[in-house]
Amino acid sequence: PTLLVLDNSSDMFGGDDNDKSQPRQFIQLLRGLCIRHSVTIVLLRHPSKSGMFNGDGTSGNTSWRNSVRGYLYLERVADDHGNEADPDERLITTKKSNYGPSSDKISIRYKDGVFVTKNPLADLINSD
């Protein structure tokens, strides 16, 4: 495989989330797997309530974010009052990217059991 998606970090990580060294060591173990097997690992994490409220998508201590090379945030699209015009629409935002631009956004929509880009060509050309 070239891509391994681990869902959810709380099911994979059995350590103390409040001890900064333990999440860092866990990420280092995953990085070792990536290098050894030439695989990309995507580790899914749920944001805390404050991470959802402020839009940064974080949870736990800073080691989770600081130890990885990239960090994406998937969120529902709602107006300022929390209303969703399209409940199937989502937005992927690059929150951290050591090897590329941050703040890129891709609009996706849930359709027939999968997420698809709303307009693939426009997403490639008009990346913010």
Task: Please characterize this protein's 3D structure.
The protein is of the alpha+beta class. It contains five helices and six strands; from the N terminus they run E-H-H-E-H-H-E-E-E-E-H. The strands form two sheets. The chain has a four-stranded antiparallel β-sheet, with no helix packed on it. It has a two-stranded parallel ribbon with strand order 1-2. The longest helix is centred in the first third of the chain and has 17 residues, at 21-37. The protein starts with a strand and ends with a helix. The model has no long low-confidence stretch (mean pLDDT 88).
Summarize the structure.
The protein is of the alpha+beta class and 128 residues long.
Q: What are the key terms here?
A:
128 residues, alpha+beta, four-stranded antiparallel beta sheet, two-stranded parallel ribbon, 29% strand
Q: Structural class, judged by helices and strands?
A: alpha+beta
- Share of residues in strands: 25-35%
Number of strand elements: 6
Count of helical regions: 5
How much helical structure, as a percent, in the residues? 25-40%
Low-confidence stretches: none
- Strand order, biggest sheet? 3-4-5-6
Q: Round the Cα radius of gyration to an integer and report it.
A: 16 Å
Global outline: globular
Largest sheet: 4 strands, antiparallel
What string, H for helix and E for strand, traces the elements in order?
EHHEHHEEEEH
Determine the mean pLDDT.
88
The first-to-last residue Cα distance is: 31 Å
